[in-house]
From TrEMBL:
<dbReference type="InterPro" id="IPR032466">
    <property type="entry name" value="Metal_Hydrolase"/>
</dbReference>
<feature type="domain" description="Amidohydrolase-related">
    <location>
        <begin position="54"/>
        <end position="437"/>
    </location>
</feature>
<dbReference type="InterPro" id="IPR006680">
    <property type="entry name" value="Amidohydro-rel"/>
</dbReference>
<dbReference type="InterPro" id="IPR017593">
    <property type="entry name" value="Allantoinase"/>
</dbReference>
<keyword id="KW-0479">Metal-binding</keyword>
<dbReference type="GO" id="GO:0004038">
    <property type="term" value="F:allantoinase activity"/>
</dbReference>
<comment type="similarity">
    <text>Belongs to the metallo-dependent hydrolases superfamily. Allantoinase family.</text>
</comment>
<dbReference type="InterPro" id="IPR050138">
    <property type="entry name" value="DHOase/Allantoinase_Hydrolase"/>
</dbReference>
<protein>
    <recommendedName>
        <fullName>allantoinase</fullName>
        <ecNumber>3.5.2.5</ecNumber>
    </recommendedName>
</protein>
<keyword id="KW-0378">Hydrolase</keyword>
<comment type="pathway">
    <text>Nitrogen metabolism; (S)-allantoin degradation; allantoate from (S)-allantoin: step 1/1.</text>
</comment>
<dbReference type="InterPro" id="IPR011059">
    <property type="entry name" value="Metal-dep_hydrolase_composite"/>
</dbReference>
<keyword id="KW-0862">Zinc</keyword>
<comment type="subunit">
    <text>Homotetramer.</text>
</comment>
<dbReference type="Pfam" id="PF01979">
    <property type="entry name" value="Amidohydro_1"/>
</dbReference>
């Protein structure tokens, strides 16, 4: 959108409660109005023809790991990672504290990351703060700086980013509750999960699918139970990250009915791949919590469809192919892979095309609910007048196969779980605040176009 005023015509526009053939008037980076297609076009507008396209709110990726700044930005950096995001329809990246150093656990770490992202990102960005024992004293200041929430690990994490044990977790929740902050947790029982992985390594288990047994579903369930109870007792708002188990979603659904402020995030890969993918892809598909059974995946889809699952995050966290086999022992290899450029296409293929997921529900899962949860609504997460013109065009008929070697990501792995996946539906254009940042297969803006989005509510 080169002009200050632009009009998107002939597209199928995804609004919160319907898909409409209205035209979208954009002025100075904002959505000015929705116009009936029969109305006379305003004068002085650049006309953008979206015929045959789905016009949807840009995605807000609730769960991204940009390894920048720090010693790990050879895996991903803000420029490459944001280009990858833009190519997949993400217009706002919500960056997690790991694995950057220094982590975003205090003002200095926050300002460093905000500065680097501001110089390099091509899409808008928000920052999670860290929740570790030593950072609780800094939470209010981080909230005032604009952090969308605070991420902690109930499982073991790293020496530099230690797990949040129960006592500190309760203290952190009480602190957050005082300013209506959001706590986000990686929920697994630390000791049992760690013990299981060490045991399977010691017995030299050669069946990678047993990762689901080393860190069984009930280690996740136990941690979710405790977290929800603590949230209920402290009044804290809580998001459980990358939920993999239907039992956990059901527990949180019941907690919502009791008035507990809990949100459920899952990832596309937990809705597509079962534990058997590890036998084929091995450590290149290894992530935590583990992939579960096919039966569990079908139950998770039920909760995607009925609204029990609130948001979809990518958990984009690339490692190089060399890092993924460095230990020569599946049980000791690192967890994570890149995927922010394929997550939407995967959800369209598996959800919209295969299961009848509505475009409105998909937009809520990938944008609207995240904006509300993270204090960005109504500025972000919708295509209603007054919102930022964060808009994506999707060709719902394009068929293609994912090839990591063509990714904009800094780590161009061709060994991850999505490699070679046949997809139907593809992002063709991405606009951030009215500017076309991705189209025709290329990045169309300079590094640093993206701006910081703070939590306002």
């Amino acid at each position: 959108m080169k002009q200050e005023k632009s009009l998107i015509v002939n597209g199928k526009v995804v609004l919160p409660d319907c898909v409409s053939e209205v035209s979208v008037l954009v002025e100075n980076g904002k959505i000015k109005a929705l116009l009936d297609k029969e109305m006379e076009q305003p004068a002085g507008c650049e006309i953008i023809d979206a015929a045959g396209k789905i016009v949807m709110p840009g995605m807000i990726d609730t769960h991204n790991h940009m390894a920048d700044p720090g010693p790990y930005n050879f895996r991903e950096d803000w420029y490459c990672g944001s280009c990858s995001a833009a190519s997949g329809g993400i217009t706002t990246i919500c960056d997690m504290p790991l694995p950057s150093e220094p982590a975003t656990v205090d003002k200095s770490g926050f300002e460093l990351k905000k500065g680097i992202a501001g110089e390099r990102s091509v899409v808008d960005f928000a920052l999670w703060g860290g929740l570790i024992p030593s950072s609780i004293k800094d939470m209010k200041e981080m909230h005032d700086l604009g952090c969308v929430g605070f991420k902690g690990f109930m499982s073991f994490a790293t020496e530099a980013y230690p797990r949040i044990s129960d006592g500190y977790l309760v203290e952190g929740m009480r602190t957050a509750a005082a300013f209506h902050g959001l706590i986000a947790l990686h929920a697994e029982n630390a000791e049992v999960a760690d013990f299981g992985c060490k045991h399977y390594s010691q017995i030299r288990c050669e069946d990678e699918a047993c990762f689901d047994e080393a860190r069984p579903w009930w280690t996740e369930y136990d941690a979710i139970q405790r977290a929800v109870l603590f949230a209920k007792m402290t009044g804290a708002r809580l998001e459980i990250c990358h939920t993999t188990i239907s039992q956990g979603v059901e527990l949180m659904q019941n907690a919502k009915k009791e008035g507990v402020g809990v949100y459920v995030e899952t990832c596309p890969h937990y809705l597509i791949f079962d534990r058997d993918v590890l036998r084929e892809k091995k450590s290149f598909a290894k992530c935590t919590p583990p992939f579960r059974s096919r039966e569990n995946i079908e139950k998770m889809w039920k909760y995607v469809m009925d609204g029990a699952i609130d948001v979809i995050g990518s958990d984009h966290g690339p490692y190089t192919d060399e890092e993924k086999v460095k230990e020569h022992d599946f049980w000791k290899e690192p967890c994570g892979f890149g995927c922010n450029d394929v997550m939407l296409a995967a959800m369209i293929s598996e959800g919209v095309n295969r299961r009848g997921l509505t475009w409105e529900r998909l937009a809520a899962l990938t944008s609207g609910n995240a904006a509300k949860m993270l204090g960005m609504y109504p500025r972000k997460g919708n295509l209603l007048p007054g919102a930022d013109a964060d808009i994506i065009f999707i060709d719902p008929e394009e068929t293609w196969s994912y090839d990591g070697s063509k990714s904009f990501s800094k780590t161009k792995s061709t060994k991850g779980p999505y490699q070679g996946m046949e997809l139907k539906g593809r992002v063709t254009d991405t606009y951030v605040r009215g500017q076309r940042v991705y189209g025709d297969g290329a990045i169309l803006c300079q590094p640093g176009y993206g701006t910081f989005v703070r939590c306002e509510a």
